[in-house]
């Protein structure tokens, strides 16, 4: 089957992107309950529009992925504790040498169009994902498959060598119907909710999957309303028009007056001042290091999150546990004088540049504002240009037309590659133009590590190279503030960007 996947890969490989008790009185949002039927619906505010394509393999934005988490599933899927649980598969096993994975298909799983899931659908899903996935790390891992076969209700995948992260790759392959051609506009999966409709810049609607193998969710419908303006979203939330919103700024949470519950977790992303390494003066390592010394990350956390959030020193966040290198978080202690010295050595004294920030993400805008003040103390003149999300995607991410930007990159699946592969010099998602042979070699070493210990060591080596060369000014994994109407309960955080509507239900 390697020959089948490899040949499909040559057809299309596209660039990948993304890419976060206060009140006293409970307020019931309008429309929370349908009194005549007793059925429930949840109205959620989204801070960005969805991708142009809703095909699971074409998703680029984290915001799209976090809601389509409810529509698509793999043979296995991540749980809230970071483990992988069986989903479309009812069970799986790994051979003693770690090279052969066997999955047993769960009986009775149906797609949202009513068709039963078959082994042919699974083969089709793996091949299509390998050929078309915007996530180059996933596509690359799938291209390494030596063989994939189906026999009745079993799928067997053979690797040329053991890969302790392969189960996370499997979780990222959404199982979709063979030869279904409308995934971009009418996605069909196996998850607890099925897609009903989408109106760009307005709303996307999901209804519960009555045939879900895990039992139909308690919510009948979820309406996600889209707000490109962060203030408009908060106004609707505080007025009770919305039941839920996530990724709110601390200032917004502290201004909440409607008695909704505030739930705090981690956003599970790498927020940084991302620098265009391919453009002067950021092609000079000393200039990038100067910016790192010019930013007081501890103070930034206090000013933007009141001390919430977690400091970062490279492109992995703490939920990755054993892979996260906490020794890097203080690699660049605040030293504006050192920053000025490095800029003088680089011939860049009086540096001026523009930070492009997506206006719909208030936490990133707030961070950018603080950075401008801090950089000024080192004689650096930074200005902010706020742009709409669609403009950020087209101009900054895809067009590479920027000097610096504040954004957060998430992990599309639970593997270090989901965050680190993008900075390999030849990777199409390398928006900053980072190029370092030692880094490329460390990632390659991780891919072919003989055991888990060696793989962890290689990934930590790669993180240190990013830090030593100041690829970006790494800031924080921001605290994630989720606000929920107390008429509902059950919200749980995941170690990746996901909202699981199936766990939310009416309060007792």
How would you sum up the global shape?
globular
CATH superfamily heading of the largest domain: Dipeptide-binding Protein, Domain 3
What's the mean pLDDT score?
89
Number of strands: 21
- What is the name of the CATH architecture of the largest domain? Roll
Largest sheet: 7 strands, mixed
| DSSP strand content | 15-25%
> What portion of residues is helical?
25-40%
Tally of separate helices: 15
Number of domains: 2
Overall description:
- The protein has 508 residues and is an alpha+beta fold.
- It is 28% helix and 22% strand.
- It has a seven-stranded mixed beta sheet.
- The protein is globular, with a radius of gyration of 23 Å.
- The model is unreliable at 1-38 (pLDDT under 50).
What's this model, at a glance?
With 508 residues, the protein is an alpha+beta fold. Helices cover 28% and strands 22% of the residues.
Give the SSE map:
Layout lengths: L1 H8 L31 E6 L15 H7 L7 E3 L5 E3 L2 E6 L5 E6 L13 H14 L3 H8 L3 E5 L2 E5 L7 H6 L21 E7 L3 E6 L12 E6 L3 H9 L5 E5 L1 H6 L5 E6 L2 E7 L9 H9 L3 H9 L4 E2 L24 H10 L6 E7 L3 H15 L4 E7 L1 H10 L5 E7 L6 H4 L16 H11 L4 H17 L3 E6 L1 E6 L3 E2 L15 E2 L2
Parallel strand pairs: 1-10, 1-11, 15-16, 15-17
Antiparallel strand pairs: 2-3, 4-5, 5-7, 6-7, 8-9, 9-10, 11-19, 12-19, 13-17, 13-18, 14-18, 20-21
Helix pairs in contact: 1-3, 3-4, 8-10, 14-15
